[in-house]
Amino acid sequence: MHRARWMFDTDIMTYLINRKSGYERNARRMSGRSPGELRLSAISVSELRFGVASSESRKENEAALEDLPGLFELEDLPCGAAADFAQIKIALLAKGKPIAPYDMLIASHARHLSATVVTNNEREFRRVPGLSVENWLKP
User: CA 57 to CA 109: how far, in whole Å?
Assistant: First the structure.
């Protein structure tokens, strides 16, 4: 398995799909990346599918979602990430500062792959021990 470079969190993907403020900066940073550098966890794909299914702009969002396999390597959650999940959850609970369950799974997946999480939700992900985090929406 080669090192995953970046794993995109669900919230930053909504900026791309919905073309929210800052998405151009994110898209520029994505351009020119080699195959396999940009990853999406099955957890994020699940959250995105739910968002599309419940959105008012369903057709447009479905089309954007269908483009993802050409831009990202879609990753199943490996069993090896379970150990990372346990360590992360214990550490966060010990500090009394857990993060949302899906975010914990995405963080576990990224940490297991030695990937940097790309997110606009820095507040939660920066609390995860041993996880590298970047926000590509910031200048």
Answer: 30
